[in-house]
Amino acid sequence: MTYSIDTENILTREAAETRSNLVSNARYTLELTLKEHATEYQGHCIVEFDYRRGGIEYLKLDFITKQIHAVTLDGKPAKEYLNGDFALYLKGDHLTEGRNTLEITYTSLFDNTGSGFHKFHDPEDSEEYMHTDFEPYDAHRLFPCFDQPDIKASYRLTVNGPSKWTYIHNTLPEHTRTKGDEITITFKRTAVFSTYLFALVVGPYARWEDRYNRIPLGIYCRKSLEKYMDPENIFAITRESMATLEAYFDYPYPYDKYDQVFVPEFNFGAMENVGCVTFTEHYIFRHKKLYSEHLNRANTITHEMVHMWFGDLVTMKWWNDLWLNESFADYLSYFAMSKGTLFGDALEHLYVRKEWAYQQDQYATTHPIAASARDTIEAFSNFDGISYSKGASVLRQLQYYIGDEAFRTAIGQYFKRFAEQNTTLEDFLSIMSEKSGIDIVAWSRQWLQTTGVNTLMSRIENGRLRIEQQGSADNNLIRQHAIEFTGYRQSGSALVENETQKIIIDGKTADAPLKPDTAFVILNTHDHDYVKVFYSRTALATARKSLHTIEDPFARRLVWGSLWQMMRDNAFAPTEFIEMGIELAMKEKDLSILNSHIIAKIKAIVSVYLTDENRAIWMPKLNTIAHERLAKTDNSEEEQIIWFGLLLETALLSDELDYLHGLVTGAESIASLEIDKEKRWNIITRLMACGHSEAENLFSNEKELDKSDLGLKKAFMVQASRPDSTEKATSWQVFTEQSSRSTDFLRYGMKGFHWHMQKDLLAPYVDSFFEAVEKIYTERDVHYAGAFGHDLFPHWHQTPDMLNKIETFLDENGKNGDRLPALLRKQLIEQADDLKRILPILEKQRG
Ligand SMILES: [Zn+2]
């Protein structure tokens, strides 16, 4: 194979396959030295591995560092290597056939992007916190390694550092030696797992302990957030999920301890490092939260726990099979929760999550669940609604199709057969076929290896239910669907459940007999299927009149979900959605439905799917309604939080803004609702963006009151939202030039930059976006680039001209943008797709 030093930080699938054929039985022994107030740290790493000579000139060892001090191979100084920016290249014919021992001494810099070895300074108490985050390809920012999932290894870590810090790793400490203010901890050698699952978290963390049977459980967060933490809650969720998963998998928790650490400036929700899960601090609830927010947090806790089996114990061979990690974690977390007592309605919330899948699957950038991943950049782009949410939906369909017993037995067998190994799609399919007696390969062809979503419609005709299936857009595929449907009879103005049946839809049509008095039918009850369900005008009229009378909240939820899909497909007017939403919001007893399916959707419609004329009509109407609802003194705090959200986002006229101002100063108040720190910041941001005369006063006052890191970030958001051209230019410069600020800090500013009501002021930033964006995606890390491409996209500019600009930009950069960085191309194609969807909806309103 010809050889060249990489010019970007990337690993191709081809190179990874070659390497895993040559390298095996890897073992790392790592020693790190950390100091207070330092920008860098020292490392010493011994890499032991078996090598099989395979005719390559150089063996790549991934490694990003500031300076290498010494390299030895089998005890002798090694000279025969090349040092690139992203790897060392060891001369193949100098390596021993068999065992090799490489030792590297180095100095590296901390990262501030949230990935690699991230360091954070807490402005509130001046403490320092560090954590690692490596998926998919960042372990080599901490130590030299073969950074790919199928060269699994064990790790033995020693850390030297200040004794006032806590050190958390994948295993428990084995020896600890304290000398003065310094401590040396050597952790137990780990089990065998992939490099991206290694973890080290450091800092003066607050700690809580508990046990689940023999397994020690730990929870950690930084000192300044200790007062907000609710460890009993999190331990209760942890113990319940652990018990459910161990029983369902018929395989005990595979590691020695289970720590959950809430770390600052985390890029995702959480990361499933073996025995040391890291979470975003957004899951530390500083204020009263909705039930659905508690459920989502519990879901993330359970999701990461599922990964201890799916992902950590058994790992995909390469990132094309990311779904073997994520689809299972995404589905089984909701499923396990639904078996417990804390969040028994979890599967209803899986339905909300599935909107992510439907949306992603209707973009031109969609891909099969069983994806391709040429390299680690494409691997990163696969962390999307398909690998997670569509995969989860399709697994639920598979479980319903083959039956839970076969599904569960196959999973147990999968762990026993492949523990500590790597797997591919074929391994999964053969075990499912074996245990169910059904040919899962044919099932996989329709569901895992294709793209797109089907639509079902139904009508009642001569006492029978007639179902029609539409092919998925672009590829016109028809699939086999196993669903339940529920029929309702009319009793006065109420709909009463009459019958529920299972049906297999195989082809374009299907039908089933109905009880004679069934008058209304909901398809896909209990949401076993991955499909859109559309309703006729007649059925919609019935729903508008009587939906709230259906007793089962899950069934009501499904209808709301369908209305949203129909609205997005231009088959139901957004203004009609708002009217029906407001009418039924008054009668909806389930606050999760009220929030996720009615109010959240109305807010989205107001911001995205209305013409300026309709927005001007609806904003004040909705603001008045929210105001009236908030005046009801018998509302629960949760209900008040939901209506307050609508009040805030529809406030634009001066008296509406004055009222918000009064809420911050205390001149106004709302029954059962605390205007907490978060709400104060949100109000101030809105007042600033709208140019309220008192905004500056409130802002300087709030900055004095809140000196936390979150306070500083929110202050940057308010600053970026100021309706002032100099301020916008300054913020833009910060976003486009290299900055010593963390990605997380900058992200808050980006979120405050664009506003509908600042259209004129922001007009120049349409072209500025296109001028800057390629450089950002080329030079900055994927998280920063993603935030820039998403949050600084001028989303308010919903015109054919904007669509034209995106398409021209793509065309100027190869064939449909194929010369652009892959993640940017994906982002822009999706933004163009959004406009293609929105523009006809706006056009229709102008009618
Ligand atoms: Zn996951």
Automatic annotation (TrEMBL):
Protein known as: Aminopeptidase N
Enzyme Commission code(s) on record: 3.4.11.2
ERAP1-like C-terminal domain span: 520-818
Protein family: Belongs to the peptidase M1 family.
Lineage of the organism: Bacteria, Pseudomonadati, Chlorobiota, Chlorobiia, Chlorobiales
Chloroplast found in the keyword field: no
Entry keywords, A to Z: Aminopeptidase, Hydrolase, Metal-binding, Metalloprotease, Protease, Zinc
Keyword Zinc tagged: yes
Record GO cellular component, one term: cytoplasm
